Amino acid sequence: MATFRKRPGPGGRSAWQAQIIRRGHEPQYRTFDTKAEAEAWARQIESEIDREVFVSRAEATRTTIAEALSRYGREVSSKKRGAVQEASVIAILAVGPLGRLTLGSLQSKDLAQYRDSLLADGYSPITIKRRLAILSHLYKIAIREWGMGGLVNPVPNVSIPKLNNARDRRLQGDEYARLMSAAATYGGEIGPLITWAIETAMRRGEIAAMRWDHLDGPSGPQCRQARVLLIPETKTGTPRRIPLSTTAVAILDALPRRIDGHVWSMRPDSISQAFERVCKAAGITGLTFHDLRHEAASRLSEKGFGAMEVAAITGHKTMQMVKRYTHFRAEDFVGRLG
C-alpha cells in the first residue's frame, strides 16, 4: 500500500511524496506538485508490480539532468562532428532550471515552462529546438544504452514554436565596400574570409576546416591547375569538390602557409565574432556571416548557373533548399523585361 506525505517543495510551495514499499522490490519514491498526481503515479507503479511488468526507475529518479548531461557530453556528444558547439548548449542546459531535476521527475509541463521562458526572453525557435533535441536524445540514450528501463521521454509531448528562420538578406548598395574597409581596419583574416565566403558559397565550418592538402594534396598539381577545392567533411555528410574563381585563387595565393596545415587560423565562433564587429564598425545591421552564403548562391544563379549546378557547388541536397538560399532582386530583372 502506497503512503503519501506532504513536504516542502521548491520555491516555498508544498509538494507530495509518494512511497511504495513491496517485498522483493527496491523502495520507490517520487515527489509531485499535487496529491492527485502522487496517487495516480502510485496506482500505476503498484499495478505494474502486481502484473509483474514493473521495471525499476530508481536510477532515473536519482540522476539529475545535469549529471546525465555531463555523462552524455563525455560518451556521446564528444564523438559528434559538432562537439564543440554542442558542449556549450549542454553547459547551458546543465546550469539552467531543468538541470536540478531528475531524469525520472522531468515532465512535459516543466519543458513547456522552460520553452515559454526562453520565448519571453527573446530566444528564437531554432535555439529552443536545438536544446530540446539534445534533451530528447539524452533520454533515448539513457533508455537504450544506460539501462534506465521504465524511463519515459517527455520531449515529444512538448510543442515547438514554428520555425521561421528563412532569410533573404543580401548585400545592398555599398555594403561590400564598407565591409572591406572596416575589415582592413580590424585586421587579420576576416577581410579575405568575407570575400572567400562570397566567392565559394562555403559554410562557416567548412571554411574553418580547410587544409592546404585539400587543394595541394595527393591530387595537388591537377587540383590546383583545375582550380578545384575538396571539402571532405560537410554538414550533409557527403564530400564535394567546388570550383574556384580567379578571385578565390588570388586569396589563397596571398595567404601564408601555416605549420599545422590549416588554411585559416580562425575557428567558426571566432569568424562570427569578428564579422559582427566588422559589421558594427561599418554601420551595417541585420547581416550575418551565413548571409554571405545566400549572397554567393544568388550570384551564381545570376551568372547563369542552373539550380542543379548551384546545388553541386553549395552542397544542398534538395532544390527547395537551393531556392531558399538563392534570392533574386526584382530590380535585376527590369532591364531584361524590355
User: What's the assembly state of these chains?
Assistant: single chain
- Please identify, by name, the CATH architecture of the largest domain: Orthogonal Bundle
> In terms of structural class, how would the helical and strand content be classed?
mainly alpha
Strand content: 5-15%
Mean pLDDT: 82
Number of strands: 5
Distance between the termini: 86 Å
Order of helices and strands: EEEHHHHHHHHHHHEEHHHHHH
CATH superfamily of the largest domain: Intergrase catalytic core
Q: Overall 3D geometry? A: elongated
Report helical residue fraction.
40-55%
What is the total number of structural domains? 3
Number of helical regions = 17
Highest CATH level, the class of the largest domain: Mainly Alpha
Strand order of the largest sheet: 1-2-3
What is the CATH T-level topology of the largest domain? hpI Integrase, Chain A
Query: Unreliable runs, pLDDT <50, ≥5 residues?
Result: 219-223
How would a textbook summarize the main sheet?
3 strands, antiparallel
